[in-house]
Design brief:
Helix content is about 30%, strand content about 25%. With about 600 residues, the protein is of the alpha/beta class. It has five domains: about 120 residues, Rossmann fold (3-Layer(aba) Sandwich); about 55 residues, no CATH class; about 140 residues, Nucleotidyltransferase, domain 5 (2-Layer Sandwich); about 120 residues, Cobalt-precorrin-4 Transmethylase, domain 1, CATH 3.40.1010.10; about 130 residues, Methyltransferase, Cobalt-precorrin-4 Transmethylase, Domain 2, CATH 3.30.950.10. The strands form six sheets. The protein has a seven-stranded mixed beta sheet with strand order 3-2-1-4-5-6-7, with helices on both faces. The chain has a five-stranded mixed beta sheet with strand order 14-13-12-16-15. Helix 18 runs parallel beside helix 19. The radius of gyration is 30 Å and the shape is globular.
């Protein structure tokens, strides 16, 4: 989904301007707390907040000095082809400056805002200034086949050369005329300095389960050559929803760099009167008289024609339809996507940029309400489905089924989603058939993405020092899903193995004995003064870290938001000027002592 821009407002002087822009773009206002009276979201630190939004892929329009935005994003600039637009607007709304992403939407936004405010758009990209056009940013429905040439072509035109244009390119009508540069616009393959393709064509495909990607790709390329259609003239790949998870289809999508959309059988069956190769066999198998031809026609619309009827190999079919005008909107529905996201223990600086970007792109957030709340501004304006503690299976099923309807869904977990969180349950449900109380076939066909997060044990270890410097393990003390005798068996094994242990889910309101039992088991294998770290509400304002001796560990000062790190027999507390730091030596002491002994001998 397209990500809405955020309007940043840093002071009352710019408030009126910020809200005018927000109304124009139907976008939220994020305001600096104590300095702005009205905003959808408030923030404390402008630099941190701007950087967080930028790394999440959010277009930013700051009603503030340009320098503030520049200082905020400068440390994280990496790839101009993937970064979101950043614009600054003066407090009085008189000047709009696209700072980053001029040809990725910033210049268009600047012009739109300037027109609405009666302002000046301070566009500085050379082509826009001198020629009034960006050659690498064609209008919707067109695609530039050779963007790598745009910079050199623009340089020639700026130096006084002219262009010869073949085809209908109204947005280039004011370019200087000449023969130094050739520009073509056609659905067919072409050779020119710049080649634009109107996206009038749609590709319909079908294939047998687990068809080799090479087979489908080669068939499509052959069909396009015969139809005289350039790959860049394709708007999308269309197929039956039963094929939404076909690896060959998605490999083709990546190769052609176009999206995949799907239709149900009833929609494709409605195209039967326009098919050139209807099949009763296909109808008996999937409920429609054609897949590739019907999908291409449904994707291109009622006025489209079939210019490449069904071509087939042993395991694949494809067809191409052509619309009379460039296609600017995608028909059908997306495959559906579920992102399993670990947001870290709490503070946004511990959340990975990838996690933030997946949250930003999601249409719906699903999870325990507290965890969604921890997303702060990133959750604003999104549909959210909150589930209580204990509703883990319900929330995973719900998230998968919503994605199965074609939505982009984010399942929000604390820490790392694959460590005592929802990741394993999602894949367990996907691994079951509907008859075995799994999820529906539609849910099983969604794209599932897992992104790593900073786990609670990592966060606690960082606060402590380096307690996980040697071998360690993690044990959950919750016996809701794991038999108590299995937990005790693992406790004995970890104690005997002298592992540093991170205890998750150490206690609950009704479960109070296993932590004390763990302490007593460990005391049989390691010293009474073994350091123990208790870390509560990590990364949140109420964070509380303290150390105890193993023999003094009390259950009553631990809750479900506490991670308990118990050192091995070798773990130590270093008493430093700023307080104790816990670490577990890995064995370097032997080398250091050996070097010391050697030095002593030399003396």
């Amino acid at each position: 989904m397209a990500v809405k821009p955020v309007i940043l407002c840093l002071n009352r002087a710019g408030e009126a301007t910020a809200h005018r822009i927000a109304k124009l773009l139907d976008a939220p206002v994020h305001g600096r707390e104590t300095r702005v009276d009205q905003a959808d979201v408030f923030f404390a630190n402008a630099l941190d907040h701007t950087r967080m939004l930028f790394q999440a892929g959010t277009p930013i329009i700051g009603v503030c000095a340009s320098g503030i935005l520049i200082r905020a994003v400068a440390p994280v600039l990496a790839d101009k082809t993937a970064e979101p637009p950043v614009l600054s607007v003066s407090d009085d709304g008189a000047v709009v400056v696209p700072l980053l992403g001029g040809h990725r939407g910033a210049n268009r936004l600047a012009a739109q805002i300037a027109q609405a405010l009666g302002a000046t758009a301070a566009v500085t990209t050379a082509g826009d200034v001198a020629l009034g056009v960006a050659l690498d940013e064609p209008p919707a429905g067109y695609r530039l086949a050779n963007p790598e040439n745009a910079k050199d072509v623009m340089a020639k035109l700026l130096s006084g050369a002219g262009a010869t244009i073949e085809g209908n390119t109204p947005w280039l009508a004011d370019l200087p005329k000449g023969d130094a540069v050739t520009i073509a616009c056609t659905t067919a393959p072409a050779t020119a300095d710049l080649v634009f393709h109107p996206q009038q064509a749609t590709l319909g495909v079908g294939c047998a389960r687990n068809c080799a990607p090479e087979e489908l790709h080669d068939l499509v390329m052959k069909t396009l050559i015969e139809a005289n259609i350039a790959p860049a003239a394709l708007k999308a790949i269309y197929t039956l929803d039963l094929k939404a998870d076909e690896p060959a289809v998605h490999a083709l999508s990546r190769a052609l760099d176009i999206p995949v959309r799907v239709f149900d059988a009833a929609t494709l069956e409605a195209e039967t009167p326009r098919l050139q190769n209807p099949s009763d066999v296909v109808f008996a198998e999937v409920g429609t008289h054609g897949v590739s031809e019907a999908a291409a026609l449904a994707g291109a619309g009622d006025t489209a024609t079939l210019i490449a009827p069904k071509h087939k190999t042993k395991n694949a079919t494809c067809a191409v339809a052509l619309a009379p005008q460039p296609i600017t909107e995608l028909r059908g529905r997306a495959r559906g996507k579920l992102s399993i996201i670990g947001i870290g223990p709490g503070q946004h600086s511990w959340r990975t940029p990838e996690a933030s970007q997946l949250v930003n792109e999601a249409e719906e957030l699903v999870g325990y309400g507290l965890y969604i709340d921890l997303l702060g501004p990133l959750a604003y304006g999104k549909h959210r489905s909150d589930f209580p503690l204990g509703g883990e299976e319900d929330r995973c099923r719900y998230a998968l089924e919503r994605a199965g309807e074609g939505r982009n869904v984010a399942l929000i977990c604390s820490g790392d989603a694959g460590i005592y969180a929802m990741g394993a349950l999602v894949f367990e449900l996907l691994d079951r058939s509907p008859e075995d109380l799994g999820v529906t076939d539609a849910a099983r066909r969604v794209e599932v993405v897992s992104t790593p997060g900073v786990s609670a044990l990592q966060g606690a270890a960082a606060r402590a020092g380096a307690p996980l410097g040697h071998d360690f393990c993690a044990i959950s003390l919750s016996d809701l899903l794991t038999p108590r005798e299995d937990i005790v068996k693992r406790l004995h094994a970890a104690a005997e193995g002298d592992f540093v242990i991170a205890f998750y889910n150490p206690v609950s309101m009704r479960r109070r004995t296993l932590l004390a039992e763990s302490r007593d088991i460990l005391l049989k294998h390691r010293p009474a003064d073994t350091p123990v770290m208790l870390a509560s509400s990590l990364g949140r304002p109420e964070e509380h870290v303290r150390y105890r001796r193993l023999d003094e560990l009390e259950v009553d000062e631990v809750d479900m938001l506490t991670v308990v790190l118990v050192g091995s027999s070798h773990s130590k507390l270093a008493q430093l000027g700023e307080g104790p730091r816990m670490y577990t030596p890995r064995g370097y002491a032997r080398k250091i002592d050996g070097d010391l002994a050697k030095t002593g001998t030399d003396l």
